Amino acid sequence: MSVSTSRGTGADKGTSTAGVRRLAAGTAIFERDGAPVLRTAAGEFLDLHAQVGPDLDALPDRVVRAFEERGLFAAPSTAADWTVAVLGEGRIATALRSLLVPAGFGRVVTATNDLPDGPAVVSWCCDALPPPGWRTFDPGTAAWQRCSVEGTTAVLEPVTQTKGDPGPADVRARRLAASGSPEHLAAYWTGPITHSASAVGPVEALFVAALLAADLLALTRGEARTRTLRLADLRTQRVTDHPILPLPAFHPRAERR
C-alpha cells in the first residue's frame, strides 16, 4: 500500500481581521458617504448605523445580535478535525488532493492500493468507469464519496454514511430504470471496453474536484448529500441533481399450497 499524508496549517480563508469573528462567505462591508453598509451574500444592502473597525469582535452587542440573527457571521468550521482518504491515481483524485488542505481539512491521506485506518471520510475517484470493487460497501466509522466518469459526464454518487443510505447498487438500479436502453447501459458498465478516449483533462478534473470538495465541506457541517445523484457535464459545466432512494428490501413470499 502506498500512503502519503498532507496536513493543514489551520490558517483562515479570506480577509483576516484582528479578532476571531469573521463574516459569512460572500458578505462584505463597505463605506458609502463615510457610513458603513453591509452587502449580504444574496445581494441585499443593509445600512449598519454603527462604527465598524478592523476588529469585528469590537462591534456593539446590538449589531452582533443582529448579525447572528441573520446568519452574517461565519459558522465555526470543523474541517480541520477531519481526515480524508482519497483513493485513485487519476487526474480527478490528484486535483481533489490539491484542494482539500487549502479548503481547511486537517489531514489528507493518499492511498493508491488499499484503505488506511481511521479516516473520517473516503473519497474514491475514477477518471473512467469504476472498478468491480466499487459496489462493495462497509461504512465502518467512515463516510464514503464516489465519483466516476461515463463519456463526458461525471457521476457524483450520494455520500454514504450508514448502511441505510443509497449506495452504488441503488444508483445503478435507479439509472437503469430511467434509461431508454437499459440493456446497452448495463453492458457498458460491465464491459469489457475495447477502445475509449478520456474526456478528463486538467480543467475538467479541477471542475469535478471542486464539486467533490464542496460536498465534503457540506458533510463536515452535517449537510451531506445522501439522497441525490449529481451529474456534471464536462463540456458545458452544467450540473443536474437527481433524487435517489434506497431500494426496498425484497422478501420473497413463501409458496402457498
Explain this structure.
The protein is of the alpha/beta class and 257 residues long. It has 2 domains: 43 residues, no CATH class; 165 residues, Rossmann fold. It has 5 helices and 11 strands, in the order ββββαβαββββαααββ. Helix 2 packs across helix 5 and helix 3 runs antiparallel to helix 4. About 4% of the residues have low confidence.
> What is the overall pLDDT average?
85
CATH topology of the largest domain: Rossmann fold
Span between termini: 56 Å
Q: At CATH's second level, what is the architecture of the largest domain?
A: 3-Layer(aba) Sandwich
State the helicity in percent bands: 10-25%
User: What is the strand content?
Assistant: 15-25%
| Overall CATH class of the largest domain | Alpha Beta
Total discrete domains: 2
Radius of gyration: 22 Å
